[in-house]
Amino acid sequence: PVITQIHPTSTPEGIPGTSCIPSQKPEKAELVNVIDGDTIVVTFPGNSQRFNVRFIGIDTPETYPEAEYFGSEAYKANKAMLGSGPVYLFKDVSNTDKYGRLLRYIVVGDYFINYELANRGYANVFSYPPDVACHKVLLDAQRSARENGRGLWSPTPAP
């Protein structure tokens, strides 16, 4: 696809966690739909084709076909942070995964979404070489969530 590259209105510099993102111009896209906690659907300016985008470096609990523990919460957190405005996509090494989804780091407004989902305890961090530029930053965010009992690591009330 022809992808228009435009700098985000707020550049990644200064947004928590973004220091690891490979230096490049982002792809500006319009959010069409939030599939779950780590996958969205976007379109690019001047192109009505829809693309599934898988967030690099994290995995959230599933919401389909069967909801896993914290899947709904991860979906809602993702949707709330994404809002309705443009999203800025940053590539690491790979363009797509084996399912044809674009692999990207996502920045919206003042949020590095991949990082925030890990930091708030909605995602587990996974390494999928060669796309590992932010692996350490995401691991640190996950560690903070776990140590502070956020999200998936929050204390579960006794039955």
Primary descriptors:
single chain; globular; two-stranded antiparallel ribbon; 5-stranded mixed beta barrel; 8 strands; alpha+beta; 159 residues
Structure description:
The protein is an alpha+beta fold and 159 residues long. Helix content is 20%, strand content 26%. It contains three helices and eight strands. It has helices at 71-82, 113-119, 135-147, and strands at residues 27-34, 39-44, 47-55, 58-59, 86-90, 102-108, 111-112, 124-125. Strands 1-2-3-6-5 form a five-stranded mixed barrel. Strands 4-8 form a two-stranded antiparallel sheet. Strand 6 (102-108) and strand 7 (111-112) form a beta hairpin. Helix 2 packs parallel to helix 3. It is globular.
Report the span from N to C terminus: 52 Å
Spatial shape: globular
- The low-confidence runs, each spanning 5 or more residues with pLDDT under 50, are 1-10
Mean pLDDT, to the nearest integer, reads 89
Total beta-strand segments = 8
Instruction: Tell me the series of helices and strands, N- to C-terminal.
Output: EEEEHEEEHEH
Tell me what portion of residues adopts beta-strand conformation. Answer: 25-35%
Helical run tally: 3
Return Rg in Å. 15 Å
Main sheet strand line-up: 1-2-3-6-5
Give the gist of this structure.
This protein has 159 residues and is an alpha+beta fold.
Topology diagram in text:
Elements: E1 27-34, E2 39-44, E3 47-55, E4 58-59, H1 71-82, E5 86-90, E6 102-108, E7 111-112, H2 113-119, E8 124-125, H3 135-147
Parallel strand pairs: 3-6
Antiparallel strand pairs: 1-2, 1-5, 2-3, 4-8, 5-6, 6-7
